[in-house]
Specification:
The protein has about 575 residues and is an alpha+beta fold. The chain folds into three domains: about 50-90 and about 270-365 and about 480-560, FAD/NAD(P)-binding domain; about 160-265, Guanine Nucleotide Dissociation Inhibitor, domain 1 (Orthogonal Bundle), CATH 1.10.405.40; about 370-475, Polyamine Oxidase, Chain A, domain 2 (Alpha-Beta Complex), CATH 3.90.660. The chain has 18 helices and 22 strands. The chain has helices at about 35-40, 60-75, 115-125, 160-180, 180-190, 190-205, 210-215, 225-235, 250-260, 275-280, 295-300, 340-345, 355-365, 425-430, 435-450, 490-495, 525-540, 555-560; strands spanning about 55-60, 75-80, 90-95, 100-105, 110, 130, 140-145, 150-155, 265-270, 310-315, 320-325, 330, 335, 350, 365-370, 370-375, 395-400, 405-410, 415-425, 460-470, 480, 510. The strands form six sheets. The chain has a seven-stranded mixed beta sheet, with helices on both faces. A four-stranded parallel beta sheet has the order 2-1-13-22, covered by helices on one side. Residues about 1-20 have low confidence and may be disordered. The structure holds flavin-adenine dinucleotide. The site of flavin-adenine dinucleotide has 38 residues, from helix 2 and helix 17.
């Protein structure tokens, strides 16, 4: 892939006429977030006398930034607190040897069905290119190496029959158990009733069951050998190996495939972190209350406030936010976007601010761990052709060895390139937790040298490697949520928390958003949806409402919101 010569207009992606476009329209809450935020009538309005009221936003990741942007547009004043750096888990770390070349430590591939996220990507004029996932044209070639045997392929058809049997069985099992193509069509058609008709019974059927249970019991997958199951876990289809997800609730996986998140993913050329950074600077065309040229940055005199240490209700009903340096300010409303464990371990949060049911949900959240190790190389040498085989000397690589997934990021023929030597989750990520970046790079290179004995990877490396373990970072404690069986009710409590009209006063005014609250954790699109739910909740909290021609998420939540499971 040549990232410089294959720039595409993001909007062009949506202009192929034949089929309705894949969209993350539900399935739990089939609401058109992209339509709500792009409608010419705007998201809504608050009474003029509330203009300029401050809302504290804890966290400057994409959820906090989207909420700040939309709240500013309706005339509120977002006040962002951030403990680390703007971007959160959209973190593009520059290599010291060439600051224009980045390692994508968090989100790196964005499915085009994530139409709310792409609304902001387009707004910020960020260019994207296809992500070099396994067996895609963008990757060029893929090597699948399992049990010491390497297979070189450009498409699935180049792999031995066993891989095709696995792919076919996966698709057929999804049809059998989840009516997948009908569900996807209903989502693409934005037919909320049809989506709910298919999805809601699946929630009850699969909330108690793991992903592994699915591949072990649903036919035709269940009729295949253990080896097929193992290969599926190691290679997966779409984005790579999936056995790290085997203990999670099957609902997590069904949502990913239904929303098309494992397909047609794009890389943001300048780095994913540019999205929250550009939103921070962006001056909207239409603003209530604020003068033209206002941006979130200008409302903050250039920098967010420090990390939050304490959240407490004060006598006049406001919520006091104390930062880590001891400064306290009172707000009528607060939006928390951090990972939910941090409400118990990273901040001193007054217990009465949430019901015990919500605390239970926040604390039961289960995280996936994730490690990534990158090196910068002098050029995309993998495009060289081995004269003996006629094949690329190195390829995107999936393996059962410790590296698991190796991704090759080509920034153009005359630019340094990047190798994501190892992208691993869960126990594979934990294996390297105690190692520094150099040790991790060494371990990964030794593995790749076994797969590619003729290639001298080391001779191309420039500068120092970069590595991350999100679970080792005190501002995160994990990479992203991975809901376990039985967690649907917890997720629903967090997700519906923006609907506060029935809450006692002591629990009102504090809102939740972010990856933990999302139905599709590990995907920025889902985090954006929760942020927009919170925007509706906050607008309502300040006495505002949406336009009758452009209802918002809270206006339709009772009708098409996620189903209740009893108990
Ligand atoms: C390894 C990895 C790979 C991923 N891959 C993809 C992908 O390919 N595609 C995709 O779409 N998504 C991906 N994601 C998910 C995506 O990155 C997240 O959904 C999204 O970035 C979450 O944004 P957020 O605003 O909800 O949370 P965050 O980005 O976590 O923002 C929360 C912010 O709160 C801050 N904070 C913490 N404590 C405090 C405090 N006490 N006071 C103030 N601030 C505080 C944190 O520093 C952070 O900046 C990936 C995530 C990870 C970790």
């Amino acid at each position: 892939m040549d990232a410089t010569s294959h720039h595409v207009d993001n909007k062009a992606r949506f202009s192929q006429p034949s089929q309705p476009h894949r969209a993350a329209f539900g399935p739990d809450f089939p609401f058109g977030f992209d339509q709500w935020i792009s409608d010419p009538s705007g998201t809504g309005a608050i009474p003029v006398e509330r203009h300029g009221s401050e809302v504290a936003i804890i966290g400057a990741g994409i959820s906090g930034m989207v909420a700040a942007y939309e709240l500013m547009k309706i005339g509120l004043r977002p006040v962002i607190y951030e403990a680390g750096r703007i971007g959160g888990r959209l973190r593009s770390e520059p290599f010291s040897a060439s600051p224009n070349v980045v390692a994508e430590l968090g989100g790196m591939r964005f499915p085009v069905s994530g139409t709310a996220l792409f609304h902001y990507i387009d707004l910020c004029d960020l260019e994207t290119v296809p992500f070099p996932n396994p067996l895609t044209e963008a990757a060029g070639s893929t090597v699948v190496e399992l049990g010491g045997e390497a297979h070189y392929a450009q498409t699935l058809q180049d792999l031995p029959p066993l891989f095709q049997e696995v792919a076919q069985a996966w698709n057929d099992s999804l049809e059998n158990a989840a009516n997948l193509s009908k569900l996807q069509t209903a989502m693409a058609n934005r037919d909320a009733a049809a989506v709910k008709q298919i999805w809601d019974p699946l929630v009850a059927a699969w909330d108690d069951r793991t992903f592994y249970d699915f591949v072990a019991t649903v036919k035709p997958f269940a009729d295949l050998s253990f080896r097929h199951r193992e290969v599926f876990g190691q290679v997966g289809f779409g984005t790579g190996g999936w056995d790290s997800d085997f203990p999670n609730s099957m609902l997590e996986i069904l949502r990913v495939v239904a929303a098309g998140f494992d397909d047609d993913q794009r890389l943001i050329i300048e780095g994913a972190e540019q999205l929250p950074r550009r939103l921070w600077q962006h001056e909207p065309d239409r603003l209530a209350h604020w003068p033209d040229g206002t941006s979130i940055a200008s409302l903050h005199a250039g920098a967010p406030r420090p990390g939050v240490a304490k959240i407490a209700r004060v006598d006049d009903g406001k919520i006091a936010i104390s930062d880590r340096w001891g400064e306290t300010a009172n707000f009528e409303a607060v939006l928390v976007t951090t990972q939910s464990w941090l409400l118990t371990t990273g901040m001193d949060v007054e217990e009465d601010l949430f019901s015990q049911d919500v605390w239970m949900a926040l604390d039961r959240t289960s995280y996936m761990q994730s490690s990534k190790t990158f090196v910068m190389v002098d050029r995309p040498f993998w495009n060289d052709i081995d004269p003996e085989t006629g094949q690329n000397v190195m390829s995107m690589t999936l393996t059962d060895r410790n590296t698991r997934g190796t991704y090759l990021i080509d920034n153009g023929p005359d630019k340094p390139a990047v190798i994501l030597l190892s992208y691993a989750w869960a126990s594979d990520a934990m294996k390297v937790l105690t190692m520094d970046a150099g040790q991790r790079a060494e371990l990964s290179i030794e593995t790749l040298e076994r797969i590619y004995p003729k290639v001298n990877i080391r001779s191309h490396i420039v500068g120092e490697p970069i590595s991350v373990s999100w679970e080792a970072d005190p501002h995160f404690l994990g990479a992203f949520k991975g809901a376990l069986p039985g967690h649907y009710r917890y997720n629903r409590r967090m997700h519906s928390h923006f609907m506060q009209s029935e809450f006692p006063d002591k629990q009102r005014g504090i809102f939740l958003a972010g990856d933990d609250v999302s139905w599709t954790p590990g995907w920025a699109e889902g985090a954006v949806h929760t942020s927009l739910n919170a925007v509706w909740g906050l607008m309502n909290h300040f006495g505002g409402s949406t336009s009758p021609t452009n209802p918002g998420p809270g206006d339709v939540y009772e009708t098409i919101g996620p189903i209740h499971l009893g108990g």
